[in-house]
Q: What sequence folds into this?
């Protein structure tokens, strides 16, 4: 009976998901990853070596790409199972059934897992295709090709599926903050085991249990085999994107896994179950009183049956009159709308959010310029991410689109007002850096600052309008911020944290292009402009 | 002041026609738009409110084609959709100030207007409370207030009294009557009594087509002499339902009193004065029979 219920819950959830366009995008993302591997844009490099493209190597390469990248992309894709039940109000119906909280949590985990498994399946197909296209080894060993997916990718996906449910159940991680935090969780999960690879030698048994993405299991095996072929090998091991040139190939015959490695996979599945059960502890069965917004004034919620009549004190037949409006009162003023949008953007955050934003501003005015440029200004850029991520999505999210888009010149007024408000937020939160650059007379630094202030809200607005969700910006921007300003990668450092990595004209151009994209996106959604 | 809907049709993806050759000519007054679920009422309202584009046909406001100049309608439009949201972190005052800015009202005018509207919809006392804590009826009243912000010449309200208590419903009806003298009001509802109380004209819509457009009096005349009351035992109620179009039943000590709509008098039935609900059911049924035939 329980299995039947589980089947139907997962089936309904899966069908609801696959019938949305976003699922096609999901599969397209997986297919693109597969394509990158097939075309040699992503390789496993062991110093100057790579393996001959046989079933064992390709199976492991694709499984590793799945566990590394799909655990990031996939998380954001599936982290909406509970939210959808909330938004569609199906959750309230489910809450009235005898279904337990833990069962619901496990069912949502399984549902997430099915979606992630479908993406993994696309990668497995790409592995088969790649062996045929590369034709370095004509013999297809199906087990060698598929077993890395079964042993590594699927347990990792199960864990991520459960983690996504946990993030949805915990109020603090449910929204945009969770989307940003997850990126750092993912980075930590990836970084921990990789550190052990450089040391050489067989990985310890304990390492397998902390190796969620199976980098150690796969690459450790490959390293060990290469060492026996080439004693000069220096223990380099990387899943490389872009830098894929390798001068030598070696024949790798496949995985030799220890018992600990197998046990770690079983442990991964058990951890997924444990995380799902922990998530159930925070599940409130769609109780409206437990929703975040309702905490503000629980005592003031009034229903008609119990006392709202106190508000409706006027007699029923009291004359109803509305003063006619003078026609000239409608002026379509943009500054007023910008202020209104700004107020909307900044309203509703917790007090500590404003306190930290203020603290960062003060620090960026008071600290030495190098410290501001290299650290504080970078932190300032991530702090308002949830303010910007609402741009372009707020109208749909709060079901306000019909009210706003039926207003006069909404495309020409409301859209620019949102963008200007976003720029104002960027300029004011990072105003300390501008002040310091101005005092120091650093014109190129100021130009980079200006480009940044235009670029970030433009990116938020364009992504919000085109994807319809704040998640794309929250995840994408966090990654970009981490790679660009934090690691000073030229071409991605939109802040210009160092003079070497600054590309202000590029980001000014991108900002303009994104504003145009946002305009076109919004225009396409309006019946009339 | 005239709103002309000329042969408007709307086809959704998948080939479903929500509206077919719909034409109406509206002058100041309240038009009650009545029809069953899925009749096309909300689609028509979305088209008039410039939210969605008609597949065929045109909408003219004072001879200006809406497709050429949608802002000509938007500048004089007040719209209360059936399903709308609010920004839960804003209070009533802030929310209306925001929408006043979106609609282009200047600061002084909007302040005065918002005060007046909050009083009108009885939300003055709770103006500082976040909208997230409002009940469904209170949100509906905020929706009514926002629709009136710009003193619209065209007021489109979709199920406006849903969620309102009886007292507020009466107030809203009075408000519509007060406003109707100088503007075109389109009121879509399932609640015939709302239409009965306010409408100066009624459009019946079914299957995306206009079934009838008449004054309430004309509609009532159509069913004059066609409404009957008969008393049957409970056991015969089912067979009576199969034979006649029944608009109401009431169980009494002497049996079930049934309200029958029929061109000829059923056996033993007494004539009754028709109501708009009778007229609505009769017209829809006649239309369906005609379509089937």
A:
């Amino acid at each position: 009976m329980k299995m039947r219920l589980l089947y139907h819950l997962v089936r309904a959830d899966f069908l609801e998901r696959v019938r949305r366009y976003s699922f096609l995008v999901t599969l397209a993302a997986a297919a693109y990853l597969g394509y990158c591997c097939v075309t040699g844009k992503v390789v496993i490099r062991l110093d100057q070596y790579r393996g001959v493209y046989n079933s064992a190597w390709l199976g492991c390469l694709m499984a590793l790409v799945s566990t590394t990248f799909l655990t990031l992309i996939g998380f954001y894709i599936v982290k909406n199972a509970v939210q959808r039940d909330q938004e569609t109000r199906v959750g309230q119906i489910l809450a009235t059934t005898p279904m337990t909280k833990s069962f619901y949590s496990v069912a949502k985990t399984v549902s997430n897992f099915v979606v992630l498994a479908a993406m993994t399946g696309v990668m497995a197909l790409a592995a088969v295709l790649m062996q045929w296209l590369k034709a370095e080894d004509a013999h297809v060993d199906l087990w060698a090709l598929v077993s890395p997916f079964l042993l590594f990718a699927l347990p990792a996906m199960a864990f991520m599926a459960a983690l996504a449910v946990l993030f949805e159940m915990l109020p603090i991680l449910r929204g945009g903050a969770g989307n940003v935090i997850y990126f750092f969780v993912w980075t930590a999960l990836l970084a921990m085991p990789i550190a052990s690879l450089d040391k050489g030698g067989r990985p310890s048994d304990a390492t397998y249990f902390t190796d969620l993405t199976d980098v150690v299991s796969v690459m450790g095996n490959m390293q060990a085999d290469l060492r026996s072929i080439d004693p000069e090998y220096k223990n380099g091991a990387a899943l490389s994107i872009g830098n894929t040139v390798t001068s030598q190939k070696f024949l790798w015959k496949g995985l030799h896994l220890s018992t600990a490695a197998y046990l770690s996979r079983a442990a991964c599945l058990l951890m997924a179950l444990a995380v799902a059960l922990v998530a159930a502890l925070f599940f409130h069965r769609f109780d409206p009183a437990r929703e975040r917004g309702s905490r503000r004034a629980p005592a003031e919620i009034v229903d008609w049956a119990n006392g709202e009549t106190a508000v409706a004190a006027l007699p029923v037949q009291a004359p109803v009159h509305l003063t006619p409006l003078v026609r000239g009162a409608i002026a379509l003023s943009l500054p007023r709308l910008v202020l209104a949008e700004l107020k909307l953007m900044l309203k509703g955050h917790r007090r500590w959010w404003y306190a930290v934003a203020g603290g960062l501003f003060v620090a960026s005015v008071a600290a030495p310029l190098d410290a501001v440029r290299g650290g504080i200004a970078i932190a300032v850029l991530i702090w308002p991410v949830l303010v910007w991520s609402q741009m372009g999505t707020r109208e749909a999210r709060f079901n306000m689109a019909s009210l706003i888009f039926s207003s006069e010149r909404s495309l020409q007024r409301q859209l620019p007002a949102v963008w200007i408000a976003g720029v104002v937020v960027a300029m004011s939160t990072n105003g300390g850096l501008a002040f310091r650059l101005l005092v120091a007379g650093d014109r190129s630094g100021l130009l980079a600052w200006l480009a940044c202030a235009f670029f970030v809200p433009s990116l938020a607005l364009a992504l919000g309008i085109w994807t319809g969700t704040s998640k794309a910006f929250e995840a994408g921007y966090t990654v970009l911020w981490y790679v660009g300003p934090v690691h000073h990668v030229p071409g991605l450092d939109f802040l210009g944290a160092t003079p070497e990595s600054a590309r202000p004209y590029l980001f000014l151009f991108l900002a303009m292009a994104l504003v145009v994209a946002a305009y076109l996106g919004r225009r396409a959604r309006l019946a009339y402009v | 002041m005239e709103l002309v809907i000329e042969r408007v049709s709307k086809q959704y993806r998948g080939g479903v026609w929500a509206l077919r050759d719909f034409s109406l000519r509206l002058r100041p007054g309240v038009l009650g738009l009545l029809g069953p679920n899925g009749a096309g009422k909300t689609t028509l309202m979305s088209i008039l409110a410039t939210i969605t584009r008609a597949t065929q046909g045109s909408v003219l406001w004072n001879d200006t084609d809406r497709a050429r100049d949608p802002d000509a309608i938007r500048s004089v439009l007040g719209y209360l959709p059936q399903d709308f949201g609010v920004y839960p972190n804003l209070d009533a005052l802030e929310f209306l100030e925001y929408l006043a800015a979106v609609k282009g009202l200047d600061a002084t005018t909007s302040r005065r207007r918002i005060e007046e509207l909050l009083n009108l919809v009885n939300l003055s006392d709770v103006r500082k409370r976040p909208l997230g804590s409002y009940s469904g009826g209170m949100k509906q009243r905020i929706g009514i207030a926002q629709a009136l912000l710009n003193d619209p010449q065209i007021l489109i309200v979709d199920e406006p009294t849903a969620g309102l208590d009886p007292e507020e419903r009466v107030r809203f009806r009075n408000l519509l009557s007060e406003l109707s003298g100088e503007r075109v009001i389109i009121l879509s509802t399932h609640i015939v009594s709302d239409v009965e109380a306010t409408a100066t004209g009624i459009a019946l819509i079914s299957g995306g087509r206009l079934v009838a457009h008449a004054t309430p009096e004309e509609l009532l005349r159509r069913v004059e002499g066609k409404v009957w009351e008969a008393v049957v035992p409970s056991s015969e109620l089912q067979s009576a339902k199969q034979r006649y179009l029944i608009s109401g039943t009431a169980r009494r000590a002497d049996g079930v009193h049934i309200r029958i709509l029929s061109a000829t008098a059923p056996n033993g039935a007494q004539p009754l004065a028709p109501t708009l609900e009778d007229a609505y059911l009769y017209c829809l049924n006649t239309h369906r029979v005609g379509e089937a035939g």
Chain A touches chain B through 59 residues (CB under 8 Å). Residues 294-316 of chain A have pLDDT under 50 and may be disordered.
